[in-house]
Amino acid sequence: MDTTRRRPGIDWIHTALVQGNLVRDYVKWDDQPYSLAGVRESLQRGYRVSMTEPKGPVYICFDAGIQEQEVDETGFEAGTAVMTGVTVPPQIPGPALQEIARLLVAAGNPVAVADQVGRQSQAFDALIQLAELLSMPVIEPQKRVSSLNFPTAHGLNLSGLNAQVLQTADLVLALEVEDLYGALHPGEGSQTSDRTILSPGAKIINIGLKEMQRNSWVQGYQRFQPADLSLSASVSQALPALVGACRDLIEEKKEKIGNAEGWRLEKREQLTGVHLSQRRAWLETAESHGQRPDITRAFLALQVGEMLKDVDYVLANGSLKGWVQRLWELKQPQQWLGGSGGAGLGYGLGAALGAALAYRGSDTVIVDLQADGDFLFTPSALWTAAHYQLPVLIIMDNNRGYYNSVDHQNKVAAQRGRSLGKAAEGTLIQDPAVDFAALARSFGVYAEGPVTNPADLAPALERVLQVVKVQKRPALLDVVTSAF
To answer: In angstroms, how far apart are the furthest CA atoms of the chain?
Structure first.
């Protein structure tokens, strides 16, 4: 703010020298316009940058003096700030597209690794078509679940069997994978192994726009992973084109040597059998946990999934360490909004409230499977939910600890041959335990819990669901889970 116009005290200590420095490593572009005309142009440019692939957030801040300035025809022409000029996504060159299609059709055991395909519905649908055309299993990186990339109950979804699938692959098609090295290397202790789980000679094709957005204050992609062919292209453009190119090659092959594609159908049946067997095993595990004295994440995911079977819902946050994907039938990307992508603490409640605002006035139930450690960074969001009567269902995954730190410390202790007894010191939220239900009620949110008995879980879930559905207001259920 102009130093000659600053009011005493707060205007001085709240005026950053360069506000964009605070978030520059997290956004695609930032700006601080200094006139009303500059505001108009900055908004236009910011919108185009944000909506151009790879899409991402921009930050524009306005001087307080500009915010308080009267708008007139000379300073800001009304109606001219139309958000236009979105650029066309990067296109795949024809020869490269044909080469990828040739390699895919020729491969005996291709595997797709999908990370952020689900951000675009056309890419999501095209991946289903491509997988079915080639009888190609699809997996998601185990260490990173950023979006729903493939229907969870589809017979070619073999996520969770990543090592088994990759060991037999002769070609890997990586699609918008943030950390390709991590996806292809098993973790050992607290370090990443140099030993790849791919068989010798397996080819790697990498398609996406990740190489265009590597500028950040952290490196979330680990070591460099070479690929036989890498294309900077939007998967929303590449996947539909690949479906067409692969289909043409298969039809051409049929015309030349007859229908020799029967093996693909047999392979698909085999993969579907593996998928169904694994899904049954996961379901049996979750059901058996109902006999335990404690509540596991698997059992919590099972119970919440049962509750939502006949409900129009959006899971705005949380996956209960992958048990949602193992047990729920998620068919479309909008059913699950994925993770934060940046591991930001306090993300969950804000994301859930954003989804609740988007669906406000509808019968869609917004669900937040809320980690307790993450919750403690933004508890005042409960007041926002209550004040604006946002119908969000918050189910606490209350393991009474900062689990990410506990898990890491356990790995470090095991690697160093130390006792695990004290590995979690300083990262547990115990003695005293937080009463999340009481905290929610203090902010004006309906709440129950803590629930510790598996037999009490289903009735409690139904009660808080009815508050959200019928009364159209937020509700929280504190569920104590055993994650350690």
So the answer is: 85
Residue 29, SS3 per DSSP: strand
pLDDT digits (tens, 9 = 90+) for 42-90: 998 899 888 888 888 899 998 877 888 887 765 555 555 555 555 777 7
pLDDT of 286 above 70:
yes
Peptide bond into 54 cis (omega under 30): yes
For the chain, give every residue range classified as CATH 3.40.50.1220: 94-277
Determine the straight-line distance between the first and last CA of the chain, rounded to whole angstroms: 50
Q: Is 402 in a helix, a strand, or coil?
A: coil
Nearest-angstrom CA–CA distance, 337 and 119: 9
Report how far residue 376's alpha carbon sits from residue 345's, in angstroms, rounded to the nearest whole number: 9
Q: Where in the chain is the domain with CATH 3.40.50.970?
A: 292-480
CA 126 centroid distance within chain = 19
- Contacts for 221 with CB less than 8 Å, ≥ 6 apart: 178, 179, 180, 181, 182, 210, 214
Cα separation, 412 vs 190, whole angstroms: 5
Geometric angle at alpha carbon 233, from 229 and 238, rounded to 5°: 90
What CATH code would you report for 292-480?
A: 3.40.50.970
Kindly indicate the confidence band of residue 458, based on its pLDDT and cuts at 50, 70 and 90. Answer: very high
Q: What is the pLDDT of residues 200-214, one digit of tens each?
A: 889 999 998 877 776
- The CATH code of domain 94-277 reads 3.40.50.1220
Of 220-229, 265-274, 275-284, minimum mean pLDDT range: 220-229
